[in-house]
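Thread: Modeling a multi-component assembly for a lab meeting

Hi all, long-time lurker, first post. My supervisor asked me to bring a structural picture of a complex we are working on to next week's group meeting, and I have zero experience with this. I have the sequence lines for every component (270 residues in total). Could someone generate the structure of the whole assembly? Inputs are pasted exactly as I received them:
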Amino acid sequence: MPELPEVETTRRGLAPHLVGRRVDKLIVRQPRLRWPIAPELIALLPGQRVDDIERRAKYLLVHTQAGSALLHLGMSGSLRVLPETTPVGSHDHIDWRLDSGQVLRYTDPRRFGSQLWQNAGEIHPLLAGLGPEPLGDDFDGDYLWHLSRERKTAVKLLLMDQKIVVGVGNIYAAEALFAAGIHPSRAAGQVSRARYAVLAVAVKQILAYAIGRGGTTLRDFISPDGQPGYFEQELFVYGRSGQPCRKCATPVKVITLGQRSTFFCPRCQH
DNA sequence: ACTTTAGCCTGTCGGC
DNA sequence: TGCCGACAGGCTAAAG
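Re: Modeling a multi-component assembly
Sure thing. I ran the full set together rather than chain by chain. Output:
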């Protein structure tokens, strides 16, 4: 489900309720997620106070003195801070009981998310190989252009490769390529330096805009305060197969790339 | 070194 | 109404 803007929206919503609070107890109803919940997290987190919440790629890092919990929402996960007495639903897999009398509740129907642990001063293997943040200064057109030389993979797959750049998922990849006028299946090595410059700017603009709007609502994204996102009605191509392109009225097409639906305008994108 | 594929899960939706 | 397949926002590991 969530891409970078949704994770960032979640971070901002959780921070006021979590930072400075002590985690008193974990209640694990379902340990089997994308990876089993880390035993170290179960052992070390109770009693710890939350110093800070950071986002890296689509991971939330909940920092404590003992180390950091790494939370990933997968495709269908959400995190909310609720009163302890809130009834438990069938997909409410893990609660962190806080000293505020509230719980941080992790809900995830498809269980593609994860709760992992990183000791203080160490870097979890899953974070070690990640590419730069798309909103950072080290991500720009020249970076993409240099990495893409000789590569035959579709430019959309390059953009979604977390080793190249993190946080760009299926929706925002489609939207950024539309904004840049680049066909999603074009070979990455065949995109010019100038067009990568446009693409990198488009990625930054779209992500920043989506964060400002509270993320996308496609099925079930809910921010920690219960508000849905409002980006959905502003999508140009994603999910609009057969509908007129918002720029030129040509019907939007859908193809499959890397087992994912890929929407584009056959007239605006080359 | 790069590219492609399978798979982790459950819920929902459209077609028959 | 019910059954069945296709599909869903992510990502890794393994195979090619």
